[in-house]
Specification:
Elements lengths: L18 E2 L4 E3 L8 H8 L5 E3 L1 H7 L6 E6 L2 E9 L7 E4 L1 H7 L8 E4 L3 E2 L2 E6 L9 H8 L9 E6 L4 E11 L4 E2 L5 E4 L23 H16 L1 H4 E2 L2 E2 L3 E5 L6 H12 L2 E6 H6 L2 H16 L4 E6 L16 H13 L5 E7 L15 E6 L5 H11 L11 H7 L5 H21 L11 H10 L8 E4 L12 H16 L1 H6 L7 E5 L6 H11 L3 E6 L10 H15 L3 E6 L1 H4 L9 H14 L8 E7 L17 E4 L5 H11 L10 H7 L5 H20 L16 H10 L10 H5 L1
Helix pairs in contact: 5-7, 9-10, 11-12, 11-13, 13-14, 15-17, 18-20, 21-22, 21-23, 23-24
Protein name: Transitional endoplasmic reticulum ATPase
Keywords: ATP-binding, Nucleotide-binding, Repeat
InterPro entries: AAA+_ATPase, AAA_ATPase_domain, AAA_lid_3, ATPase_AAA_core, ATPase_AAA_CS, Cdc48_dom2, CDC48_domain_2-like_sf, P-loop_NTPase
């Protein structure tokens, strides 16, 4: 095509072969040395990219023609310069264009000829927080005679050239590559312009970290049917079925589908199932037909259905698929009539989809995107930080180990937080002109302020408490070592002796006796990941969400094995069926039984439950193969109380305190009561010193806890379990 070729009013069907993988390696020019970037500027002042004559012939473009360039940072459009400097299979770009693409030396990009559409409307806004009211005509002039796409940034000169203001395209109608003419409505909003979603098209390999098995599954189910279409075509239609991409929210399902489009060099077309379900029936049908028509215009197209659960048809509640779900299923079948089209649909819960969607001729393949392993998280972190300046003390593998429970979206949030921390440190430091470097301390700060988005009910960490820090409870500790530590630490020995480890252990006893601390300590001795679940917080008002949360906890444990799942207040999670509470507890108990029965393998996973009310635990949970070992965690005796007191006194300056006498005085106190007692004694010592006019708050050298301070603590802390009815424990 020539520079004078008019844009197509309807977007025009791209020519066959216009989108090709012409670039495998990326070379960034050195600006200011009179070489490649100068050649670009001389040939086309507005150009950000130079291609070789061979690449230009492949794309069928001439100098100053618009091209679309896709890389890790998303898609950008510019006009192309044809120059001899870039070698075969490479392109040269200016530093500014490289920054917008998010690429550096040696990265992959895709260049394709862009056929622009005349825009009905274009909305722009200054990148900074300012207004350009009165400068609309200047902005419009700057946008003419150049290709535009959402995210394009153009510098506008205002006030007779004394002020340069970058403005960003934030919306175009229609979407895609556009140009403006006299009929285009241009809206200039106040800044700052919002950030642009970089995930608007295919994702290159350099932007994908880890997940080798998922990538292999995508190649088999999505890429090969497109790249080896003849092998899949039969009788005028494609023998390739659609694929369900399964995984929790934020794990990277869309990212992997977009990467498959990159690998297949296919047109990527996205469909939001939630929006489809929200519009009227006729509007939904029209939208589906427009998507199908768009897909059939391309030699290869990957149609991505986001949020298929919105069209689930309420299968889990027993109802059949609705009319829209049936229509959607028929639409998927029609797409099979067009060779070169593959459909990938995302779902969190494939078991809740209507049967009409999971038929073998519709979504017959399944691609799992599990929670990332430590190696996956390390690779993702490396991908996210590839263009950051990291200090030598940053070890990606350590970050991968420390981010247990994080999915890809959480790691993106972590990256943003650590960069913000580093920028703030440099901004307030004396070396503010030095380049911003992210240090291990910045990452520590970011980790302390970010948590996995999916861990509101399940908290994952690696405990750092030992059994030596648990006072008393010698019999309970011995039992847990036998039934928890040994199976995780010595599985081969147990296998040789034909010892089947218990599926679960139930700790029961009054509040504050150390059940949670004991569970954390035993997990620490085995170097196992510890997944703490607050039973009541798992309940959700929406049908099916509580059961999904239980499944997710066990899946997370399997993927991070060896792991210990600790269900606190398990009586709330598995209340006796038939008691008050409705159907929700029954569904949760059923799901918990399913997981404990091992319908899904739990190798390397131990389950510990804790309860103050064993009488309220559903008896089905206590049968063999479930919580088949019970351990009482009772109130400490005198010697155990002395041990607990000495543990809590290790880091405190105590004088003239007789622990044996104090242990005898605290009959009926639990471990948490004893901790509260010493805490109150510490406050009494501080209160006494602050009331002494001869001391200031900074005089801490002679701050000591003495016997009369402990007596004050005894008067304020009483046994919390004294009023607790423990008669049910004897019956249990």
């Amino acid at each position: 095509m020539s520079p004078a070729a008019p844009p197509t009013p309807d977007g025009g069907a791209p020519r066959a072969g216009a989108r090709v993988r012409t670039v495998e390696r990326f070379s960034s020019p050195d600006t200011g040395d009179g070489s490649e970037s100068d050649a670009i500027d001389a040939a086309a002042p507005d150009s950000g990219i130079a291609v070789s004559p061979g690449v230009a012939r492949q794309l069928d473009i001439e100098p100053a023609d618009p091209v679309r360039v896709t890389a890790a940072g998303g898609a950008q459009v510019t006009t192309a310069t044809v120059a001899e400097q870039p070698g075969s299979g490479t392109v040269a770009v200016t530093d500014a264009f490289a920054d917008r693409l998010g690429v550096s030396d040696g990265d992959e990009v895709v260049v394709e000829a862009a056929v622009p559409t005349v825009a009905a409307s274009v909305s722009v806004a200054p990148v900074a927080a300012l207004s350009v009211r009165g400068g609309e005509d200047v902005v419009a002039a700057a946008l003419t005679e150049r290709p535009l796409i959402v995210g394009t940034t153009v510098t506008v000169s205002l006030l007779d050239g004394t002020l340069d203001v970058p403005v960003r395209v934030v919306e175009t109608d229609p979407p895609g590559v556009v140009v403006i003419d006299e009929g285009t409505t241009i809206t200039v909003d106040s800044g700052p312009a919002g950030t642009v979603d970089a995930d608007s098209g295919p994702v290159p390999s350099m932007a994908v970290g880890g997940y080798e098995s998922t990538i292999a599954a995508c190649r088999s189910a999505l890429v090969q049917p497109l790249t080896a279409g003849d092998a899949y075509d039969a009788g005028g239609e494609s023998a390739a079925t659609g694929a369900l991409v399964v995984g929790q929210s934020g794990v990277g399902k869309s990212h992997h589908v977009r990467h498959a489009a990159w690998l297949a060099n296919a047109e990527f077309i996205s469909l939001d199932a939630a929006r489809l379900a929200a519009v009227g029936h006729e509007a939904a049908i029209d939208h589906l037909e427009s998507i199908r028509a768009r897909a059939t215009r391309h030699a290869r197209a990957l149609v991505h259905v986001e949020g298929l659960d919105a069209l689930a048809g309420a299968a889990s509640s027993g109802s059949g698929a609705g009319p829209m779900t049936e229509r959607f299923g028929s639409w998927v079948s029609r797409l099979r009539e067009q060779p070169g089209v593959v459909v990938a649909a995302e779902t969190r819960e494939p078991t809740e989809l209507a049967d009409t969607l999971t038929r073998g001729d519709r979504f017959g393949r399944r691609i799992e995107v599990p929670s990332p392993t430590p190696a996956d998280r390390t690779a993702i972190f490396g991908t996210l930080t590839r263009n950051l300046d990291l200090a030598p003390d940053v070890e990606p593998a350590t970050v991968g180990e420390r981010t247990l429970g994080y999915v890809a979206a959480d790691l993106v949030a972590l990256r943003a937080q650590m960069v913000e921390t580093a920028v703030e440190r440099f901004r307030t430091g004396t070396d503010s002109e030095e380049p911003v470097t992210v240090t291990a301390a910045d990452i520590d700060t970011a980790l302390s302020t970010t948590t996995p988005a999916a861990s509101s009910a399940a908290v994952v960490d690696v405990p750092d408490v030992s059994l030596d820090e648990v006072g008393g409870l010698s019999e309970a500790k011995r039992e847990l070592v036998r039934v928890v530590e040994w199976p995780l630490r010595y599985p081969a020995a147990l296998d040789r002796l034909r010892i089947d480890p218990p599926a679960g252990v139930l700790l029961y006893g009054p509040p504050g006796t150390g059940k949670t601390l004991l569970a954390r300590a035993i997990a620490s001795t085995t170097e196992a990941n510890f997944i703490a679940v607050d039973g009541p917080e798992l309940f959700d008002k929406f049908v099916g969400e509580s059961e999904r949360a239980v499944r997710e906890v066990f899946r997370q444990a399997r993927e991070s094995a060896p792991a210990v799942i600790f269900f606190d207040e398990v009586d709330a999670l598995g209340a006796t069926r038939g008691s008050e509470g409705g159907a929700a507890p029954e569904r949760v108990v059923s799901q918990l039984l399913t997981e404990l029965d091992g319908l899904e393998q739990r190798k390397g996973v131990t389950v510990i439950g804790a309860t103050n009310r064993p009488d309220r635990v559903d008896p089905a949970l206590l049968r063999p193969g479930r919580f088949d070992r019970t351990v009482e965690v009772g109130l400490p005796d005198s010697s155990a109380r002395e041990e607990i007191l000495r543990i809590h006194a290790r880091e405190r300056p105590l004088r003239d305190v007789d622990f044996q006498t104090l242990a005898r005085q605290t009959d009926g106190y639990s471990g948490s009561d004893l901790a509260a007692l010493l805490r109150e004694a510490s406050l009494a010592a501080l209160e006494e010193q602050l009331g002494d006019g001869d001391h200031t708050p900074d005089d801490v050298s002679d701050l000591v806890i003495r016997g009369h301070h402990v007596e004050a603590g005894l008067s304020r802390v009483t046994p919390s379990a004294r009023s607790y009815d423990t008669s049910d424990y004897d019956d249990f």
